[in-house]
Amino acid sequence: MTAARTLRSAAALAQAGLIAPERLPALEAVAARYAVAITPAMAELIDPANESDPIARQFLPDAAELLENPGEVADPIGDAVHSPVEGIVHRYPDRVLLKPTHTCAVYCRFCFRREVVGPDGAANLSPDKLDAAFAYIAAHPEIWEVIVTGGDPLVLSPRRLRDLSQRLAAIDHVKVVRFHTRVPVVDPAAIDDAMVQALKASGKTVYVALHANHVRELTPAARAAVARIVDAGIPMLSQTVLLKGVNDDPETLGALMRGFVENRIRPYYLHHGDHAPGTAHLRTTVAEGRALMRAIRGRFSGLCQPTYVLDIPDGHGKVPIGPDYLAVDGEVEDPNGGAHVYPPFRADN
Fold it and tell me: E strands, the chain, where?
C-alpha cells in the first residue's frame, strides 16, 4: 500500500502495510517516546518484505530503541553546554548553529537530537526568542558562518525561511549561511521556486547541506529537487551518518557518494553514530568505520571521499578519525595495503 500522507503513528504504519500487525503494541511504546514521521516519498521506497531494508532501518521504529546502553545520553554532542541563548549553539569560534524549529519532515531512528525534536519535543522559537538569537549573532563579530538547522529548517514556509535569510543578510559580519536539511530527499515537491528563492541571502554565500544515507534515497524526484537548488547558484554539500545495515559496506557507501557527485553535491561529512539513547543497534564501531574508509580509498574517485568524523561527547567538538597511511618509520601505505619507502623522508617534512 502506498502512503498518500505523512505517517505519524505506529497504527498508521501498520495500516499502510509497513509493519506487521503483531508488532504494533511494541512499536506504539517506541512511538510514545520518540517521534515518528515517514513521508510518502520515503514510504514508497520501503520494502516491508525485506527485514534488512536500508530505508526501513532509518525510519521505521524498532523495539530496540527502548534499550539504552551505557554511555548513551540525551544530549550526546553537548549542544546545551554551548547554548548561550535558546536556539543558538556556539561551539566553534567562527560559526554558530541557529535552530528556529525542532520539527522535521521525517524522524530518523538514529537522531542525536531525538529527545528534543518532534511534536512533543522542544518548542519552535517564539518571535521574542528568535529576536534574541539574532541579537546574539549581531553582537558577536567573530561569527563568520551561520548554520541553520534544527529540526529541519526547510519544513518552514518559504515566507518564514525568507525572513530568516533576510535577517541574516542584514548582519554584515556574517558571510556564509548554511542550511542543513533532508527535505530535498524526503519531500522533494517542497523544493519549488519559492523555497529556492527563500534560501538566498543577499550578499552572502549560501550552501545547502543535504542529509542522505543510501543511494536509493536519490530518487528521480529528489535529483530534480537538488537540480533546482544547484541550478539557482546554491552549492550543495552532503552529510551522511554511518549506520549498521544501511551503508556500512564499501559498495553501498561508494554508490551513495557517487550519487552525490553525479548530482553536483560535494561529499562532505560521514558522521560516526552518536551515543543517543536507544541507537546502539544502528551504530558501528570506530574500527569498522576506519576500515570502511580504507576500503573506498583508491576504489572510488577522490571526488567521492567524505571526511569521517566523530563528535566528541560533552560538546568538545568534531574531529576527523579516518585512517592514517603514514608510518613513523618512513613508510607510506598505498590504498591496497602495500608499504613503500618515501625518500627522502623525515617525520616533520
Answer: 88-92, 95-98, 145-148, 176-181, 205-211, 236-241, 265-271, 307-312, 317-320, 331-333, 339-341
One pLDDT digit (tens) per residue for the chain, 349 residues:
455 799 999 999 999 999 999 999 999 999 999 999 999 999 999 999 998 999 999 999 999 999 999 999 999 999 999 999 999 999 999 999 999 999 999 999 999 999 999 888 888 999 999 999 999 999 999 999 999 999 999 999 999 999 999 999 999 999 999 999 999 999 999 999 999 999 999 999 999 999 999 999 999 999 999 999 999 999 999 999 999 999 999 999 999 999 999 999 999 999 999 999 999 999 999 999 999 999 999 899 999 999 999 999 988 999 999 998 887 677 888 888 888 888 765 555 5
Measured between alpha carbons, how far is residue 50 from residues 16, 55, 82 in Å? Answer: 15, 10, 42
Alpha helices for 50-171 (secondary structure H): 54-59, 127-138, 158-169
Torsion sign (Cα): 95, 96, 101, 103: positive
Residues with a catalytic annotation lie at 91-92, 95, 104, 108, 111, 113, 274, 311, 318
Q: Is 329 exposed, middle or buried (0-12, 13-18, 19+ CB in 10 A)?
A: exposed
How many Cβ atoms sit within 10 Å of the Cβ of residue 14? Answer: 18
Nearest to 253 by CA among 264, 269, 234: 269
CA-closest candidate to residue 282, choices 114, 80, 97, 39: 114
Nearest to 313 by CA among 52, 68, 70, 56: 70
Q: Is 319 helix (H, G, I), strand (E, B) or coil?
A: strand
CB 85 within 8 A of CB 310: no
